[in-house]
Design a protein that fits this description.
4 copies of one chain form a homotetramer. By secondary structure, chain A is an all-alpha fold. Chain A has 2 domains: 57 residues, Homeodomain-like (Arc Repressor Mutant, subunit A, Orthogonal Bundle), CATH 1.10.10; 119 residues, Tetracycline Repressor, domain 2 (Orthogonal Bundle), CATH 1.10.357. Chain A contains 9 helices and no strands. In chain A, helix 1 packs across helix 6 and helix 4 runs parallel beside helix 7. Chain A is elongated, with a radius of gyration of 20 Å. The relative contact order of chain A is 0.10. Chain B binds a DNA duplex (31 and 31 nucleotides) through helix 1, helix 2 and helix 3.
Chain lengths: 192, 192, 192, 192
Amino acid sequence: MQKIDRRAARTRTALHKALLSLVERKGYEEVSIRELIEEADVGRSTFYAHYAGKEDLLRSGFDNLRRELAEAMKEEQGAVPFRFSRTMFEHAARHVGIYHAMTGSPGNVIAIGEIGRILTEFVRRELSETEDDGGVPREVRIQFVVGTLVNLLTWWLERRPDLPPAEVDAMFRRLALHGTGDILPTGMRENR
Amino acid sequence: MQKIDRRAARTRTALHKALLSLVERKGYEEVSIRELIEEADVGRSTFYAHYAGKEDLLRSGFDNLRRELAEAMKEEQGAVPFRFSRTMFEHAARHVGIYHAMTGSPGNVIAIGEIGRILTEFVRRELSETEDDGGVPREVRIQFVVGTLVNLLTWWLERRPDLPPAEVDAMFRRLALHGTGDILPTGMRENR
Amino acid sequence: MQKIDRRAARTRTALHKALLSLVERKGYEEVSIRELIEEADVGRSTFYAHYAGKEDLLRSGFDNLRRELAEAMKEEQGAVPFRFSRTMFEHAARHVGIYHAMTGSPGNVIAIGEIGRILTEFVRRELSETEDDGGVPREVRIQFVVGTLVNLLTWWLERRPDLPPAEVDAMFRRLALHGTGDILPTGMRENR
Amino acid sequence: MQKIDRRAARTRTALHKALLSLVERKGYEEVSIRELIEEADVGRSTFYAHYAGKEDLLRSGFDNLRRELAEAMKEEQGAVPFRFSRTMFEHAARHVGIYHAMTGSPGNVIAIGEIGRILTEFVRRELSETEDDGGVPREVRIQFVVGTLVNLLTWWLERRPDLPPAEVDAMFRRLALHGTGDILPTGMRENR
DNA sequence: TCCTAAGCGAGACGGTACGTCTTGTCTTCCA
DNA sequence: TGGAAGACAAGACGTACCGTCTCGCTTAGGA
């Protein structure tokens, strides 16, 4: 039993590595299963025995990332709202390759979505005690925050990878908390 | 010349209609070219003579939408920031079918991206005179606004299609201009 | 390994049968690959996994014929020149369907050429010890004999399928060995 | 009427020239109609207005060749059998390009067949007075002679274009009139 | 000299085959 | 006997070609 498990584990590891490597090279959408199993040196049926498809493998492969990210963010609950965002940007900085590959092309929605799902958990927790005041339902606010986070992430990795995480994080916090409102030209201020 | 154009126009119209109809039925990604030309009753080579592929057809098909939207938004320049958003939501309400189909599945990135591209033009114009104050580059702010807009749009059509455009627009404006900041629980307010 | 081979063999057999059947029905050139795989109930990619194209399949399908023919002709070495021709005509008589289909239309050059290639081997062997006397190079004589053989075969199957192989063979031998010379009207004899 | 004909004639000439030129360059089978009309600078529909297809054009284009060949052979009736063969080989020598292109690949059956049809007329005329003696029907003899002629032609142009027409003609005459019989090794002579 | 019908180029079009690719299933082999 | 290997059916993709067609320009021949 153990040996079989060990074998299975090796197979899974090989597939994860292959996916990572290929995604980094050519983006998630462009990776075909044939390439994947060839790179991992694994039979086709073996792949399907372990995963339901490319997406499943991706999700599973993200478990590590997710765990790591979750671990780092778990303790960060303090007075500062969305404190975890800083952690996330720093995490991304440490794994530029894979993050960049995933956010790179618009085709990688699934990959981006996966990041979003992880973040959603945290945002939801943080916003769980707020009310639907201001006429904006909580779910909308959650999606708004996550969207903004991912937006920043994408822009950062794609256009200004040189910026330090702290700076991007500052932008995120500014936008998420205060919007773009008070940076509009004076004449156009909305009367509140 | 005109008559040839007229013939070509008929073909293109047939293809656009077919795409719309099929996208509404099963989502953009799921539509195959075979289905498309069958629905449009057009030869395969004819399709490729007019468009480079499915994506090209989509983009071209959006030209109407874009024009319509642009037309509607063009005049809306007033004191209210992002006035066009209201127009957009109302436009979406009038074409629920196609908007919903496009935002429905995560697979429809291309379609969503197309909407985003249209909106970006307008947001950019409106933000063109602002400065990079607050440490947030203009491009980031543009992307942030568009992202928020699309986010709301998706959420609306997917979860609360019953809401009137005005209400969704209010949410959008609130979030884009002021963020989620002042709706956080008192204890967590960030000190500015 | 064997069982995989067995599966592959079944596929190949199905394709051979389909080709034979279709060629008999409508001639080699008219058979499309779509028909072929439909008739054989085989996937398109499977076909291309086994054969490079229609021609390759044909050639491969001929291996049996070739083997059979070769087998029959192998032992026929005696004092009679071109003894194998009789064997060939008899073989054709036994497989009228496929032979007729192949020689039927002028489009079936490839099929006819395949027969020619088989025959060439035997003719070459038989003429291998002769010299280029009479000013006619050996290769020319080989091609001449094979051509005559194929010519007769075509004529027989197309115009007089009722004739017994022996009679056609007699004609072939007469023409190949002595030409049409001494059956010319007396007045036109060439002075040698 | 005449001028219209003159215009039509120009079109036909252009197409013939184009066909000749293209066939010489890449062989009959490889020439597509698109290339043809492009080379001739003629509209697609115009082509189909004049000819039913590539084959029809070829046949028509051969009319000149045929006429020329026929002209040359017409007078050559003398005591020597198959006197016209010499004329044909010489004619071929004078038009090596097109002859070679046509006999080059096995795909050019149609072109070769066209030559055969011309020759058949002459052979038939010459053999018209002979009887079916020797058990070889006249039609078979005709086909045999034509086949041999074409065989030689092909071999000549393909393998030994350096040989003078006279020599090839001698081979042809030897083979057609006397076969390969008496050049067999002594031990294998058939007893007549 | 003007007018009309034909010849023509240009090329859009429906149809269909091709060879390549990918996906998920299913059969066979081997440890 | 259960996991690995890979053969397979299905079918989409973009390209090529065919024969039909529609269109408007040019031009020749009769009025």
